[in-house]
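Notes from the pairing session

We agreed to fold both candidates in a single pass and log them together. This is the raw record for the first candidate, unedited. Please don't reformat it; downstream parsing expects exactly this layout.

Candidate A
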Amino acid sequence: MKLNSLSDIFERRLLRIPDYQRGYAWKEHQVEDFWEDILQLESDRIHYTGVITLEPVRPNLYQRWEKDLWLIEGVGFRPFYVVDGQQRLTTSMILLQAILESVPKDAELNYQSIASIRKQFIFFEADNKLQQSFIFGYEKDNPSDEYMKTKIFGEYSGSNQYVETLYTRNLSFAKKYFKDQLAGLSVDEIALIYKKLTQKLKFNLYEIDEEIDVFVTFETMNNRGKPLTSLELLKNRLIYLSTLFKDNEGREQLRVNINDAWKTMYEYLGKNPDVPLSDNLFLRNHWTMYFKYTRRKGDDYIKFLLDEKFNARNVTHPKSSDETLKIEEISDYVRSLQQSIVYWFYMHNPYYAQSSELTESQKLWLDRLERLSFRSFKPLILSAFVSKQDPVMVTKLLGAAERYNFTLFNLSQRRSNTGDTEFFSMSRDLLVGSKSIQDVVYALGQWVKRYYDPAKFLSHIEEKYELDRDGFYHWDGVRYFLYEHEQWLRNKGKQATSKLSWDVLRSNKKDHVTLEHIFPQTPDDEYWVDRFGHLDEQEQRYLTHSLGNLLPLSRSKNASLQNDSFPLKVNNGSGVGYYNGSVSENEVAQSPEWRPEEIFNRGLTLLEFMEQRWNIELGNTDFKNRLLHTNNIRCCSESEQHAGVSNPEESGFLDNASEISL
């Protein structure tokens, strides 16, 4: 078979990426490989680049392309869908555009003017300047269509309305990458790149027969190491199924709805460019909520969706009436996906652009769950939002979920899958109305009552001291707990801003600490020897890693400074110290000394806050003393009285925590 160059492929062809295709999925690795292929290619040789598969567009479809009909019926261009190879073609077009933008407008590349190159590959304009068409691009309804025209090709498209998605960011990255690579090259060097791109890269070109099932073909094709995601496969399958309802007048509208839904999903999956969301995680959690949950693992959700639920057999010749797939069922599922992705985004980005979708209390609890971990509650919470439950009860559900996760997993050290099956099933029950949100919140409270066990928390901390030797310092809940305590102190003091950043607190920068031992691990300074020298090595270790001796820092601190004396830690004389840090640091800075009794008293204060904040009981002072590992240490007896903690509920910080614990 004859190999075709890019110039051959674009010979009087109009190329569109159809609506069932994914957007531009290549990332840095694939783009770099493409560039290196061209760069390393000798000018007198060719490079086989892969397969391009095209599907002729039927007249009843291209008749809708109002802006392109003049080029098809008047000039004689043949319209095609790009079924396979769109990633390579799109990359070629981005590089071509970058080339044209990297040379003077009056330059010539291989005896071609910039205007003639644009007319051949990108933008064809009639002599009268009235009719204009893009030679290569996406179908109109694809969310990347406007972005490709305006931001990549740099043309005015009419509406100039584009939506940024994960795919459009890939387009933007590729163009910037190519422009950066071309920036240091001369016009002659760029002309050589252009020649290699348009003449020396060779493709196998296939025009598939109309009898071939293009949807099935698309599902089985491979795109140079970038297989289709589950969300992409599902979109293709649903569009394919829409074509099978031949006698149903709603099939065209269903296809429009599918495209709209996927446009929305890709918009919200990539809405926060700093933290793009996983399409697979969204699809799996939605499946758990929307369909009856099973214990099957792995890729069970996509196997169910493609192999069992949304397949051609269930439309054309179902095995039983129960398996019959109706167009309304597909439509309802698509609508649910589109509605759910908005809430899914704000579940993970509660404070993004001050969303009006959530109440302030909901934002607070969602932020806590994001820091602590949602664990198995995502489908249940998603269900509460999608089913439009009472906002006050949704807030209680969020608080109950946070309490459940902290008390059962961070304190009681229960197995990580405790309650999973029940809560997954509840998400479906809540969605369809067979269980009320009041029932769900009550059930969570009962689970805590049944499985919370402070003795297991004590055993876990003892194990940390025996095995890790680091006690509370390596307790998996210590940073979350101390951050919550910091926020309570800030709220209690009515401080508007917080100096303690969660991102800083959880960071693990080499040779720096964000969680400090006030009494240091290496207490060589005379200050520490004078106050702790009477204790043996084990007693000192117990106190070093006791909860009351751990302090969250508002800024990362060099590890070598941890051994400073307490007065220097409070204020080093250079404007840095506890006195100028987080609220927790300010509180510790008020203490004139740091001795064993200060560690003990602060530890008890923190444990009392824990009891109030999560509405639990840890035990009497003796139990807390054992938990803190301050028992039997001189100057840390029960006779040492401490001031205690103000009731956290008085500050309003707990946000209905007592009500949540039903």
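Candidate B (folded immediately after A)
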Amino acid sequence: MALGKNKILWALLGIIIISIIVIGFYVNDYTKNNIRQTLIEEHTDEQMIITKGLAASVSSEFQRLQMDVKTIAESKQVQQSLTDKDTIDYISKRWNDINSVTKISDIFLVDKSLTVVSQVNDERFRLVGLNLKNIQSSDEFMTKPGYSGEIISSDGIYRVLVSSPINDLDTGEFRGIVFAILEPSEIISKYIGIYEIDIASIGIFDENQKILFAKNSDLLGKEFSGYFAQRYFGENLEQNSHYERIFSGNTEAFVYDSHRSGEVISTGTPISIEKENRFFFIVTTPAKEILGEIESNLFVEDLKNNLILFVITILFVVIILKRAKSIENEKLQVIGQLASNIAHDIRNPLGTIRSSITRIEKQEIENDTINQETERIKRSVARMNHQIEGVLNYVRTTPLNVSENSLNDLIKSGLNSLIIPKNIKLEIPKQDVVIHCDSDKLKVVIENILINAIQSIDTQEGKIVIRTGEDDKEITMSFENSGPNIPEEALSKIFMPLFTSKLKGTGLGLSSCYNIISQHKGTITVTNDPVTFTIKIPKNLRKEN
């Protein structure tokens, strides 16, 4: 009888243990599926924000470049001749100006016969003498501004041509075309640091569904619906339908598991320029990259499925850790989205204002009031551009590109992008110093500190003194200004993100300076009496990097 009772107890215990194990597996699987679904939904929403933000940035860059090309076509030099020295010098200067914002490969001019007669940069490929009659959209280029993806050089790289016809401003007669060449990767790399996203997941298509930018370089120039691309993507019907909806002008997020990389999250949107869908921007992320961490964390819990509470606790901790880790990412994404919106919504009208002012100045009107007002408008445009660049510079996280530079040349280059008011006297160093640094990033620092000094002095008579020096270990730069002292309570916070004591400004300029100097293994400090920003950068920076 006792033996029978023991068997019953062992059987009950076995049933309880098995039940716990089964329940543990069920709860674990249910929790994993819920977490998995939540993560995919969250990432899909975040990826759509990224896709729209990057698409808006690319659209802004193309529209600004289109405006620059149109300005060149209407310039006095190009109107007079397509080949003389003044024209070549002019388009060379415009090439340098454009490259300071968006890197382009070349600017070239073609005549009535669509033969290239002038170009700025012939170091990479020589185009003079090349006839473009057979390129895609050549007829449209003669009648209106346009865009076209082409391979026009021996290096086989697929580039985008941005064009504007050259028509005689008096008679309207067609005289030729201005072209600017750029590689889509240059625009993408400019903004990719804003978001935590792999550049290999990005695809850009033109209005004819040709691939302008993709992870596999063999796809460049191929039509998505063509044989080569379809063979590469496995003639995926789900993917084809998803892409066709985007090519039809829809913004769409889609999760499907028949992709060549397995289950993926795909988000896409058209890029509209002048109310026409000129390009299509698609981001594709494999789901395994998102779920890999949670799967590995839950593997151990699968072996302990009978400890349901322990599993739930671990899952809770994992969720909390993941959410805590994502706080900074979400903050940067918000700033990044803000940066993209500012660039998209403000740069276009700013470009129009800047172009209009340039035309007014060309009229050579002798009127003090007009001259004063145009200078005020130019200062305002420069200040607004600075606000945009302040946000973008803060969220960009590109590595240093160290080279040998003249410190005086960097200072002068930074000054060239600023308007120094007449009430401020500026002293720059007479003795030059050679410095190893990332020239583009150090110019951002110089511009930010000088703008802060100018704003501090305001309309009072004042002075900015720049000093440089060096010893065996480091290069030193100091920027002294005669503006009012910084409040003591602000000195310790002045390099913190989003901190500002001014009514205007983003609070990211000096924070960007701090980040850039830290990247250079250097220090930046500020003191009062007088207000002085001091920067120290190691001499052996090239060796350290």
